[in-house]
């Protein structure tokens, strides 16, 4: 039930602190070792893994992009991310030492299911990250990490996405632990940092009026761009997808470094441009995104900048500043995505659209 909310989506956005906390719950034993109880692959089997391929569709594929940054950083195992609908058709190089990670909220997405069936035929090991107990994809996997987001009813994924991102971090840390690589030792401190994140998500929800007002101001715009670097890039893609599917406006997310390779031609006076700024700790990334913001601003873009507390470097070039709590770079998507979800939800509502059931879309896509 909607429990007093107008939309399931609003309710599900507000459930995100709990979805993240519940996905983290009980994963560390007394000795600070990470436990994933639905993991049916032994440490020996995991140590044989020399390549990871993440497959998913839509929003789940953006969780996969975040996973790539975290998993490669923590485990030093090469990790590719691919749309499930493309994977089977390109003759991928996979064998017994490949771990295929399928991410699916519903566990029923046909493209993802077909991709894991193909991967298993090629003898790859398959681990799925799923929110629906007993659904087809986890049933057909060698191992499962369940996200504990609770049922997601709105077609547009919100708490499903954040909990997928958390499960991807857990997988990365677990593999690091199994391999005994450098970051293995830091697992409990990263888990501690993850436990702080629900409070940060809650703050973004509490401060939602800022983006709701912004949506009212921009309600007549027909095009929006989203810019990000590093893990801010998948956040930009997710912000754009939410806006397309809910508000039916043109929205495009891209990697900030690609700006001058094409998208900057779209910039004209008044074009709203969301920019996700990486934490200040990432000096080099910061400097570059700062110049990207200046470039689009000089061409008249209306810049809406998401930046962590205390970082004022971008303020002179921002028409709107959305403050984010300070979190480690890799974890920033968990807080930065929230205002973009709220913005899309509000814009759709202002335009009179059905937020929970956007036109032409289904909650689970069971055809290829
Ligand atoms: C977007 C959205 C879709 C799903 C995609 C995969 O808001 O909900 O893009 O993420 O259809 O669905 P699952 O995760 O169920 O496989």
UniProtKB/TrEMBL annotation:
Its main location: cytoplasm. Keywords: Aminotransferase, Cytoplasm, Glutamine amidotransferase, Repeat, Transferase. Coiled coil: none annotated. One of its GO terms (biological process) is fructose 6-phosphate metabolic process. The keyword Repeat applies. It is an enzyme of class 2 (transferase). It comes from the Bacteria. It is found in: Cytoplasm. Its EC number is 2.6.1.16. The active site is at 363 (for fru-6p isomerization activity). It catalyses: D-fructose 6-phosphate + L-glutamine = D-glucosamine 6-phosphate + L-glutamate. Residues 42-181, 214-358 form the SIS domain. Homodimer. Catalyzes the first step in hexosamine metabolism, converting fructose-6P into glucosamine-6P using glutamine as a nitrogen source. This is Glutamine--fructose-6-phosphate aminotransferase [isomerizing]. It comes from Aeromicrobium flavum.
